[in-house]
Design brief:
The structure is a homodimer of 243-residue chains. The first copy, chain A, has two domains: 64 residues, Hypothetical PUA domain-like, domain 1 (Ribosomal Protein L25, Chain P); 166 residues, Alpha/beta knot (3-Layer(aba) Sandwich). In chain A, 33% of the residues lie in helices and 24% in strands. The first copy, chain A, is built from seven helices and eleven strands. In chain A, α2 runs parallel beside α3 and α2 runs parallel beside α7. At the A-B interface, α2, α5 and α7 of A face α2, α5 and α7 of B.
Chain lengths: 243, 243
């Protein structure tokens, strides 16, 4: 954990926080600070800050916190993801939030198996701890918004502009026939919406809908990557191209 | 599997191959081809090609193979990796080979725990099937060379040029203070050696040795990423910058 995240109601008016459980154990056993040291903390969906330790024991940590003024901005990238296998979805949550996303939209596609949507990995009670784990790894505080919009066509035609307004839209597709670099280099000042299809790829009908909705296609300069690896690679390439 | 890989001695002089086990089950149950269809195949560390099916049963597949002339080139990127936790090393092998690496060099660092090197995930009998899995995912045939060079200083000072000759050398380091994009954009025609440190980062002594050995430092435009995610992100950013 590179930043310990707190829920707003865990912080007293004077900035005092008492931690037990995983976060206390992490501070005591991994960070191993002394009383008087500071650790990086933050309010979940709020301001980052520092906490000065006033007591440290294996399962009891007390901090006095100071927070920076203002909240961090919404990250510049949204992700539209065709629902992957539940096992892949499970391991994607933490990396996705660690790389900084404003919104994650999960949808259906022709090559997504129907029973993928039955998984508890689309239940906030299960995925939110993973998102928080990713934020704490990266030192960030803002949870991505998550939208499960199962019906692909209404999503693309009617709902997308409200969910991800005024974004440059790019879909990763292996047969795009032109380099992703050119596609990424265009509008660094605009927010970005990246679309990643299912393992078997988008079908022509879906690609046509995406194109009609303003997506341009890019091909990463790699062979066919596993969905989770493709997501991370695409987010990395997009992030670096905008830096 | 986007390409079924064969060992050279599995192919008869006439190009005939008989498969049982995982590869046969994958062809029969996932690809579901008919007799007469072709599937993408390749010789491990050799030529890619196509196999025409002459028999398909759940655990018995027969193919007649034709191979392309010439072997695929060595990928343009090598990776120098400070040994991560065994659990992370385990899950990195397949993604690393799927992204195309010429050589993977694994070394020690001050912030690597000594017992990490005891893992069986540094044993070729355990990691080679993972590397092959990554190649089959990406549709490639060439295994990365793997070198475990535990002593950091002799590696950097004496052995690196022989292991990764004439490469542009880049180390990912969060405090590099300049954008990774500039660092990547410089020499697209030259092979690249990318270095990724341990979870806690390189210590100043190690960074100084790397700098003396010609590495320039780049910072990815993200928070602190988990080692496996940082590797994939760095390889993706480097690959796209060279495309």
């Amino acid at each position: 954990m590179n930043r310990i995240l707190l829920k707003a109601d865990e912080v007293s008016d004077g900035g005092r926080v008492v931690l037990a459980g995983i976060r206390a154990r992490h501070i005591a056993a991994v960070l191993k600070p002394a009383v008087g040291d500071t650790v990086r903390i933050g309010i979940l969906n709020g301001a980052p800050g520092h906490g000065k330790l006033i007591a440290v024991a294996p399962n009891h940590v007390e901090l006095v916190c100071q927070f920076e003024a203002g909240e961090p901005p919404v990250p510049a990238v949204d992700l539209l993801l065709a629902m992957p296998r539940p096992k892949v979805m499970k391991r994607l949550w933490a990396p996705l939030s660690s790389m900084g996303l404003g919104r994650i939209i999960i949808t259906n596609a022709a090559r997504v198996e129907r029973n993928y949507f039955d998984t508890h990995w689309l239940d906030p009670a299960h995925y939110e701890p993973r998102l928080i784990e990713g934020l704490q790894q990266a030192g960030m505080t803002r949870l991505p918004d998550v939208t499960v919009a199962r019906r692909f066509r209404p999503l693309i035609e009617d709902q997308l502009e409200a969910l991800s307004p005024n974004t440059q839209r790019i879909v990763a597709h292996p047969d795009a026939g032109f380099s992703s670099h050119a596609g990424f280099a265009t509008e660094p000042s605009r927010r970005l919406l990246l679309a990643v299809g299912p393992e078997g790829g988008w079908v022509p009908f879906e690609l046509a809908l995406l194109q009609a909705a303003g997506f341009s296609a890019v091909a990463l300069p790699f062979g066919t990557l596993r969905t989770d690896i493709a997501c991370i690679a695409l987010l990395a390439a997009a992030g670096v191209s905008r830096a």
